């Protein structure tokens, strides 16, 4: 074999291998590309952790530490003191009872709803799905006001005498969380392989037996995940319980607010925050394991959709026992539930339009003028809420998008998989930790934070930051399933064709993640727009948000203030539902998220 020698200074042959001489161009570009990719992934982990540490973990630690540190020494006697009070056990019992009963009812009603809305087709199904989702995105204060207007004396259901009762709170919690069960269970049911159920029917099983022994066990991971999330949301409900139950039927969340704002008992608030954190951690653990089981089950087989039209009459020639009766029962129950979901919203609108002289927009016109003792109009508060929610949404998208991108990876090593799972669980904690604890923790920790010569307590920046902390988990749960649904072979094919890690990320992962961006924006914006717990501490008196103004109007004496609160609640409900509905239209090309 002879070798071709190039003259001095000539370029290397064009067919030279990529791993040629150290001076080759490909060899020089490789290290720079690899260093850039490593730097990106390091930043993708460090930025969210820094955000969570500074604006969530640190305020919570400071708040809890104030209750457990006395004269510079750790003092855990507060646990004995707080748990020796009968009031504490009553509050814990009420929290668990409300959350448990509301979870059971939500699952019992939501599973038939998921079957009707995701396994059967009928005219107007898309509109019904949207209506079912509206209560979940409504601010909790609006839900409380809607139920109060329905149950008070003179309301459509005032004759039931349920205003301020335990049953009213449970009904409101079911109203709020019904969509969680329908969407979580329906999303899996829609893609569930029907051949196992068809095989059971062919072997002589009745429709009910096939449902009970084949379909429901397959749906168990989704049902368990939805139930744990509903329990989490019910156990940490604040605005709804505060409006409907007051001090009589409080929860751990409302009790933290009472102990902090009325009694200034930080020790009791700290103990209750730890108790709530334990409950939340348990619920998140169950939800995480159930979600992992659901994702593993979905990757074992390709989804086979078997959606049939929903008919009121049995088709001609179809024998009895085909499951038509089961369809009718599920459809009737779902229709009743949908009507009950619409009733508080319709009544809220009707009550806001009723005036002393008949009907009109007087209460809405009053929103443009400052209310007595508030010093600011509801219209100004609406503008403030929109600006703050926009800032919070941008923050949540950046932080939550980075978290979803990191957590969607599937490391080969066990340590890497555990680290990814731990990061996922860590960023779910803001969903369950008391917003009151976070808000009051901001006030305690943002005076000269970390020794800096700054006082951020009066800064308007804290409100969108606090709302972003709450919205980040929603962004993660919306974007993450889309990224995890991406076939890893696409990345491998792009790499085989010569794309570097950075280009694979830009051309494969990011375009797929963008498909869920609209829905993530909607949920983040809605969560920020309706956030009340932390905002009630941080909002400046001259720049309150709309939920804060609504709560203040409810507490003011006089029918005029209550009617203005109804009108303001309608405005807030229309804003949140409108944003989510607009973003939901972008979901058609996206597998969607857990919400």
Automatic annotation (TrEMBL):
Region (Disordered) spans which residues? 1-28
Recorded hits in Pfam families, A to Z, give: BPD_transp_1
What GO CC terms are in its UniProt record?
A: plasma membrane
Subcellular location, in the record's words?
Cell inner membrane; Cell membrane
Where do the ABC transmembrane type-1 domain residues begin and end? Answer: 92-287, 382-583
Q: Name one GO biological process term.
A: transmembrane transport
- Per its UniProt record, what CDD domains does this chain match? TM_PBP2
What keywords were assigned to this record?
Cell inner membrane, Cell membrane, Membrane, Transmembrane, Transmembrane helix, Transport
Domain of life assignment: Bacteria
TM stretches of this protein? 37-58, 91-118, 130-152, 164-185, 218-246, 266-287, 328-350, 388-407, 419-444, 464-483, 517-539, 564-583
Q: Which InterPro entries match?
A: MetI-like, MetI-like_sf
How is the protein disposed in the membrane? Answer: Multi-pass membrane protein
Q: Which PANTHER family did the record assign?
A: INNER MEMBRANE ABC TRANSPORTER PERMEASE PROTEIN YDCV
Report the family membership.
Belongs to the binding-protein-dependent transport system permease family.
What name goes with this protein? Iron ABC transporter permease
